Amino acid sequence: MVGALVGYLIGRSRHRSAIRRPVGPTVSELVQRLVHSSHSGVVVLNHFGDVVIHNPRAEALGLVRNRQVDDRARKAADLVIETGEVVEIDLSPLESRGGRSPEAVLGEVRPLGEGFTVVDADDQSDAVRLEATRRDFVANVSHELKTPVGAMALLAEAVLDAADDPVEVRRFTTKILREGNRLGTLVTELIALSRLQGAERLPELNTVEVDAVVRDALGRAQLVMESTGIDVTTDDDSALLVEGDRTLLVTALSNLLENALAYSPPGNPVSVSRKLVDGYVEIAVTDRGIGIAEEEQQRVFERFYRVDKARSRATGGTGLGLAIVKHVAANHGGQVKLWSKPGLGSTFTLRIPAHLDPPATAGADIKSADGRAGRTAVPSLAASLVPSKSDGAGTDHGGMA
User: Fold this and answer.
1) Taking 80 as the threshold, does the pLDDT of residue 362 lie above it?
2) Which of 69, 245, 322, 335 sits 20 to 30 Å CA-CA off 355?
3) Whole-angstrom Cα distance, residue 125 to residue 92?
4) Quick one: pLDDT band at residue 87, thresholds 50, 70, 90?
């Protein structure tokens, strides 16, 4: 687009110069401004392959270095001069430069006439990464759906073979029910994740009571608590408020709780605490479970990633729980943080921007979030596991669910 406009303006400049000199900036000056202000990398070459004009973006994308154009672009320009046809070209860096350098640079070379060509390139890294993520997601979903469906088919055959044995029929049908429930949970969480990633418009954010979110999440996790024999302790009500969607926040906190319960040995308590830190409400879920190795902490929020695959399968985990938590936090303008040590446990902290209503923040209720104003907060396990810095000493993390 920019290259075509450059060619048009150059042609116009020749025509207008034969008539009269324009008032104000010359066409040549306007071309220079246009090229330098473009978001694309633009390079104009002569018939020798020398750089005539280029913009800073072309250098940032690696098209031009030390006034020399990328050799791939020069060879494409020679072909364009020879054929007169537009050539599409991949100008992606041959070696990773690290940091935020572009990974995929795609462009095209077009003729400008009289031996001149223009290279017009864009950074397509985001699109390439998105497509790779989509392919991985489809492959993972196919694999995850295939497992319970295949298991149910085999179990159904076993039921038919054992039709005359009520004990065996009951045993196999129980397994079918478990796999069916697992399949239903997987589909539900896939729909939720698709919604959070933009397939549907998210609901309008409202003022939500944090204490109500904690109560609802504890209610959802009650069956898991009873089946694992693990108690969940909480601090006192905080009267804190956030701007958000109550259902999504309850889902996120429930996933954190169920994750903590699934990865904790029987008899080791899990705790939930809440406080106000730098304009954010922090809801922390702490366990004394298996913990997460440092090299895995950056991956636990990936879809279908599991730290302990055997335990996750046994508990019916889908590998989507913490991916959902991450996206719920992001859609609320917040984040999730992780502190963990193998053998000591983990603390997942959901940080959501607080609703700072002046009358509420002025009273003792907000002060009670850190245990002052005459209230005694129930000490949580996080106090003994997590360093006392307000940033949670955490690393942006992922999940085990």
Assistant:
1) no
2) 322
3) 9
4) very high
Give Cβ neighbours of residue 101 (< 8 Å, ≥ 6 apart): 62, 93
**What sign does the dihedral 266-267-268-273 (CA atoms) show?**
positive
345 or 186, which is more confident?
A: 345
pLDDT: which is higher, 268 or 386: 268
Query: Distance between CA 285 and CA 253 in Å, rounded?
Result: 8
Cβ count within 10 A of residue 29: 11
| Annotated domain spans of the chain | 2-123, 125-201, 203-396
CATH 3.40.50.410 describes domain 2-123: no
Spatial distance between the Cα atoms of 100 and 307, rounded to a whole number of angstroms: 28
CATH 3.30.300.180 fits 203-396, yes or no: no
CA distance 338 to 348: 5
Third-level CATH fold of 125-201: Helix Hairpins (1.10.287)
- Check residue 344 and report its DSSP letter: T
Give the pairing type, strands 206-209 and 64-65.
Answer: unpaired
With H, G, I as helix, E, B as strand and everything else as coil, classify residue 119: strand
Task: With 0.70 as the threshold, say if the pTM is over it.
Answer: no
- Per residue in 158-176, pLDDT (tens digit) is 888 888 888 888 888 888 8
Retrieve residue 387's tokens. 């360093």
Assign residue 98 a region: left if phi > 0, alpha if psi is -120 to 50, beta otherwise?
left
Please give the helix or strand (H or E) that residue 69 lies within, else none. Answer: strand 68-69
- The candidate with the shortest Cα–Cα distance to 321, out of 333, 307, 310, 332, is 307
| Residue 237 tokens, joined | 């009500």
